[in-house]
Specification:
Chain A: Pfam families: CoA_trans. The complex is a heterodimer of chains A (257) and B (328). In chain A, 26% of the residues lie in helices and 21% in strands. Chain A is α/β, with parallel strands linked by helices. The radius of gyration of chain A is 18 Å and the shape is globular. With 328 residues, chain B is an alpha/beta fold. Chain B folds into 2 domains: 234 residues, 3-Layer(aba) Sandwich (Glutaconate Coenzyme A-transferase); 39 residues, no CATH class. In chain B, the strands form 3 sheets. In chain B, strands 3, 4, 5, 6, 10, 11, 12, 13 and 14 form a 9-stranded mixed sheet that branches. A 3-stranded antiparallel sheet of chain B has the order 7-9-8. In chain B, β1 and β2 form a beta hairpin. Classes of the chains: A alpha/beta (257), B alpha/beta (328). At the A-B interface, α4, β9, α5 and α6 of A face α4, α5 and β9 of B.
Amino acid sequence: MTVPALAPTSSEVLAVVASRELAGKRTVFAGIGLPTLAASLAHLTVAPGLEVVYESGVCGAHPSHLPETIADSVLITDAEAVISMPALFGYVLQGGHIDVGFLGAAQIDRWGNLNSSVIGDWHRPDVRLPGSGGAIEVMANSREVFVVMRRHEPRSLTDALDFCTSPGPDRARADGIRPRGAGVTRVITELGLLARGGPGEELRLTAVHPGVTVDQVRAATGWELDVADGLAVIEPPTIAELRLLRDTVDPDRIYLR
Amino acid sequence: MDTQTDATGRTTRARTTPGTTAPDKTMSLRDAIARYVHDGDTVCVEGFTHLIPTAAGHEIIRQGRRGLTVVRMTADIVVDQMLAADCVTTLVSSFVGNSSAGSLGELRRRVEDGRLTFEEYSHYGMVCRYLAGAQRLPFYPLRSYGGSDLPRVNGQLRKVTSPYPGPDGEPEHVYVVPPVNPDVTIVHAQRADRSGNTHVWGLTGVQAEAVYAARTAIVVVEEIVDASVVRSDPNRTLIPAHAVDAVVVCPRGAHPSFAQGYYDRDGAFYREWAHISKDPRRLAAWLDEWVYGTEDHAAYVSKLGRDHWERLAVDEALSIPVDYGRRR
């Protein structure tokens, strides 16, 4: 089944880049899809002690099959712990036990604030999106947040959100609420890697995929994107990483589209 | 199943199970909905992606309830169906997507056209509303919402100053949510005894809090078991009988969600719902065929057919019994 010669797909690249950023992390709060692929790969490579906590309340899952959702029965059978919603959100998240929270969003701005509620006006939206779920809590309580954006385009990486569902620490502080975590510290896209250190800092371009130019990333970003000194070029997925992804993590290519 | 309910479902008296003094609260789903769900009620339907009380939602649709306020963390397919059947005027929720399988078509149409009152929260905001409701507290604080636009569109999200200084000695501000006390909460579970001691395992979500927050509670179960089964493992009782008003046996009543150890999630139906719900005519035809066209959930189950259920069957994975000990 291994075809290491085959060029990596964009999903594989995103999963590999995200997995490398998890080096040395202990607990990650992740949904199904790219975040779980990244966490599973990191577990086999750079973060052997990594524990994934799912929003359904599952900790230490040992699934017999690749789960379809965060609530798949295969995550529960053989799990180390299954806890209630008050325990998950109250004790695990709000109690400060999560190192990295993975979030997705329809829109992100330069400060790492996220919109997953609406496109257009909230009262009469052009598109009603699923909403927060636990994203507000993941943002407010994780030490840091990683965001994977499949599409790097100006309407997604935007100068002004249509609605701020999940605010970063700067917006929280402006509202009189003392922030706890750093907010979004990594944005992994098809063009490269954006990063920020924490409160008061903008997202800036720190690395690009081979063959991608700074101008290309700037044109695809909705705000005037700052570029880090010593911009790096991301090392393409190694054969070892691809083998693990393809043979061990997702052999049926359920998420490796 | 011997339900022993009276014909009207309104004047049953507490009966006793032979050999015990516990009241028998079993009744049919039809009777439970008729008695405990009224037009204009606030109805909480809980079960976090697991044990979703779909059969109860369908019975509410069959009985034509109107003007309901539905409270539920993840709206899911059953809410889309209740919306399409015109049962619901207000939705209180923290996630309005079709799991990870696309959109809830009817919900999107109604929100985008301004035809549904939507009170939007985050998951923990909803959890804290249940916690405040269950404990009859005036509000519940949480470290969420600071800087979010949600308080701008949901006036129930309010900020207070803590009466205690923060770690740095300075005043600390925190958002709070109000309690929710539904007229009725409906949950689905694996098993209960006839008086309502309810065993739940797998994802336990927020069912206990939602039941205690409510004025009345209906527990729908895969099977009724003898009290001795419940008492063999009392830590498994998530909801004690004193919090339960009606016990309804309704096998496979959580489809298309799942019941851990009984049947698996119908992922194909979740994906299919994105297409069904996208077209209002197709959605109406689905309700006609599968809800109005079935007399009760047993008819729905049998209409799905044996092959369908075979695909959702699961193998056994027994827990190892614990020893509670018995004093000599």
